[in-house]
Specification:
753 residues, 3 domains, binds (2R,3S,4R,5S)-2-(hydroxymethyl)piperidine-3,4,5-triol
Length: 753
């Protein structure tokens, strides 16, 4: 494992536990992509493809006098533009003389221990084994220097890439595009998998066999968005959850993004990933530089599950703030769906008391505690408490809540302002707005121009006051609209193309300042649910509210879609009231608990409205969640299932690192007539060991029916790991509305059979 340069072959090799990446400096000084995939353990031998003439001599594809060279089909590491490669480019500029071409040639390299932090941006955190290959490229005609970084996380099978672009010329360069990643694959035998959605319906998986065209997965909304997550996979057509070659690429960025995948005339595939493009431009004065965000790449030969596990390991170990890696996070109750804006101290304390009696550990006060915020039309920006609702303010309330043995969390939406607010009255120019045009509102709010230092200072000052005054253990950082009218009153007219990225850098600067000043403050990200569920936010927020949709059955799909890249330890998940507020569907409390436990686990309901039976069930769920906490949060996660399960039930499991225990979850999503007994093949167990499991067998009654629950008898069963994985586990017969099982498999003490 490591990074090597083979002088004779002029080939760079990056080798991780199971993968390998190679590139070569060719005779023209170009950086040629050779290979990415499973380990080869030797330098790729020259193959016919690379010197091939694609017989289009009238096109400007030659290099020097070399006619047997086709730039338009050549695999490159960071493609320029305008000089004969007509595929999507990695970088586009306007030179001082107005010329548009970029042609990068190799200059040199260095191999470094560790990695460089990215100024102003979240990044993949290094450890003592991290190594970086830094390659310098240059276009001497326009004076552009590009430093490509390849950062190796060998155990996780991850290679992180980014680019720094420096103007080494005498005049002003304008960047029109600066990708984090540009990568050419040999062949086009791939399916493209991406995750689209909308509010309350995030991260639906779509799988498309690649054809000869340019695919774009993008968000131009100034946020990573509910609509297109900044994560894609390319896999063999035949790859499934457990086998086949799969590549994943994710951007560590929370603003707009663009991922392009193109199959070219020679059936090869290029992927380019970076910031959103619409209107983007960035002025680089002589000597100035621009840093792209990190792009995370991984390969697995073990199917989509294997690839997900690489990303999960990376996010848990290298993205989320290290102080939260090994700390158990509190089981919370959030008042949003219990009260919406209609609360006062008495109501909140009543919820807190009930919650404390159930064993819940933290109360989160959601939207509506500040300014004149009695509905969603006013108050954002006025971050001082509404004493009419909460006499004595947050100090008194937080003290009272702590006295009940609960931690206290608070909702904020820092980047927004309502027109009806003291802040907007005092500083209308602090909002992003076009001159002379009516501003497009969303939820009656505008977006603050976070690129301005004075806006960051105002917000930091407000939050510092709150955090110093009251006992606040947690903040929910919300963001409830996309950007529009992205015009900053602080930037000159010719630099407005920088405003969207500068907004994002401003948000990161504020988050950085806050997390530096209050490192133990747990921040949960949120953007109308999962509109900013990305590695950029996860760098500051170890958990993110996954969706505003709390319907357990619909949530299974959102959690599953999200799990392709993100570990369950990052997924904010709550048990909410039944019937559900988004869908109107009723589901048993048991099923809601099982689904929410595959996340950070919490509640979003009024406990005063629960029956004694439901309260007892919640007490049991809390005991179970505490018992299985590390198995769920750090165990290896497997999506289970085969084609015939689809639409009938979903199953997933967690296996501890030493394979001594596993937690199997199954929820019936659509009951059948004369229902087939659900069965699943388990994954990740020790085939030679035997596992004991206690299975609740129901007699009489109906699952989840409080009026007729029947009786439940626990039956202890024992199976070999081999049987559970090859034959499968057969559940007891199911009936009722949305029945679910959560079963704990424990390796028998003798370990084997
Ligand atoms: C959107 C969030 O996703 C909800 O949970 C809630 O906090 C509301 N905003 C409050 O306005």
């Amino acid at each position: 494992m490591g990074i090597y340069f083979d002088e004779a072959a002029q080939v760079f090799v990056l080798r991780t536990a199971n993968t390998e990446y190679q590139m070569r400096v060719n005779g023209f000084g170009m950086l040629e992509h050779l290979y990415y995939g499973a380990r080869l353990d030797s330098v790729l031998q020259p193959v016919r493809f690379f010197g091939r003439d694609i017989r289009m001599h009238k096109d400007p594809l030659d290099r020097g006098n070399e006619k047997n060279f086709a730039l338009d089909a050549y695999p490159q590491e960071y493609a320029g533009s305008g000089v004969g490669d007509y595929r999507v480019s990695g970088v586009e500029t306007v030179a001082p003389d107005g010329s548009l071409s970029v042609d990068l040639v190799y200059q040199g390299y260095q191999i470094l221990d560790g990695r460089q932090a990215l100024p102003g941006l979240p990044f993949v955190r290094p450890d003592s084994e991290t190594k970086t290959l830094e390659i310098t490229m240059q276009d001497p005609v326009i004076g552009l220097c590009v430093k490509l970084s390849y950062i190796l996380f060998a155990q996780e099978d991850v290679i992180v890439r980014n680019a720094q672009l420096v103007n080494q010329g005498q005049g002003k360069l304008i960047l029109k595009k600066a990708a984090s990643l540009c990568l050419d694959f040999f062949g086009s035998h791939f399916d493209l998998i991406h995750f689209h959605g909308r509010h309350c319906a995030e991260r639906n998986m779509e799988r498309l066999p690649l054809g000869h065209q340019l695919y774009t997965v993008a968000s131009e909304r100034g946020m990573s968005s509910h609509h297109h997550n900044p994560f894609v996979m390319l896999c063999d057509h035949s790859a499934d959850e457990y086998q086949g070659r799969c590549y994943g690429a994710a951007l560590v960025y929370s603003g707009g993004h663009r991922i392009q995948v193109e199959v070219d005339q020679c059936n090869n595939t290029r992927i380019v990933m970076g910031l959103a493009s619409k209107g983007f431009s960035w002025e680089l004065a002589p000597g100035a530089s621009f840093q792209t965000p990190d792009a995370v790449l991984s390969f697995s030969g073990k199917g989509l599950n294997g690839l997900s596990q690489n990303f999960h390991q990376l996010i848990r170990g290298h993205i989320i703030p290290p102080q939260f890696r090994d700390v158990r996070r509190p089981i919370l109750i959030n008042n949003w769906e219990a009260t919406y804006f209609d609360f006062n101290t008495e109501k909140i304390l009543q919820i807190a008391q009930e919650a404390s009696d159930l064993g819940i550990e933290m109360l989160v006060l959601d939207d509506g505690w500040f300014g004149k915020r009695n509905d969603d039309r006013a108050g954002l920006g006025d971050w001082f408490v509404n004493e009419e609702k909460l006499p004595g303010g947050l100090r008194v309330l937080s003290e009272e809540i702590h006295k009940k043995g609960l931690k206290f969390g608070l909702w904020l939406e820092p980047e927004m302002v309502n027109g009806v607010s003291e802040l907007y009255e005092a500083h209308p120019d602090w909002a992003l707005q076009d001159p002379g045009r009516e501003t497009t509102l969303s939820r009656a709010q505008m977006v603050l121009d976070l690129s301005r230092q004075e806006v960051q200072d105002y917000l930091f000052g407000c939050f510092q006051k709150i955090l110093e005054d009251a006992q606040i253990d947690y903040v929910k950082w919300d963001f409830n609209r996309s950007l529009a009218n992205v015009y900053s009153a602080k930037l000159p007219e010719e630099r407005q193309g920088e405003a969207a990225h500068r907004f994002m850098l401003g948000t990161y600067a504020l988050l950085e300042r806050l997390t530096t000043a209050y490192p133990d403050l747990l921040i949960e990200g949120c953007a109308s649910g999962g509109g900013r569920y990305d590695m950029g936010m996860l760098y500051y927020c170890p958990q993110i509210w996954l969706s505003d949709n709390t319907d357990a059955i619909l949530r299974i799909g959102i959690q599953r879609g999200s799990s392709y890249c993100y570990p369950v330890s990052t997924m904010g998940a709550h048990v909410s009231a039944s019937p559900n507020h988004q869908s109107g569907r009723s589901t048993p409390i048991e099923t809601r608990g099982i689904v929410a436990m595959s996340g950070t686990f919490g509640f979003e309901l009024d406990p005063g409205k629960l029956s004694e039976r439901e309260k007892n069930e919640i007490r049991q769920q809390i005991r179970d969640f505490r018992k299985y906490y590390w198995l769920i949060q750090k165990g290896t996660y497997f999506r289970l299932g085969e084609a015939w399960h689809e639409g009938y039930f979903s199953a997933w499991m967690f296996v501890s690192e030493d394979r001594s225990e596993a937690l199997l979850n199954m929820v019936v999503e659509r009951m059948q007539g004369n229902a087939i007994v659900p069965a699943v093949r388990l994954q990740g167990l020790d085939p030679g060991a035997s596992y004991r499991v206690e299975v609740p067998i129901r007699r009489g009654g109906w699952y989840g029916n409080p009026d007729n629950p029947g009786t439940v008898e626990i039956q202890t069963e024992s199976y070999s790991g081999a049987q559970l994985m090859e034959y499968g586990f057969v559940f007891p017969a199911v009936q009722g509305d949305y029945p679910a099982y959560q079963l704990h498999f424990v390796k028998e003490p003798d370990g084997g059979i």
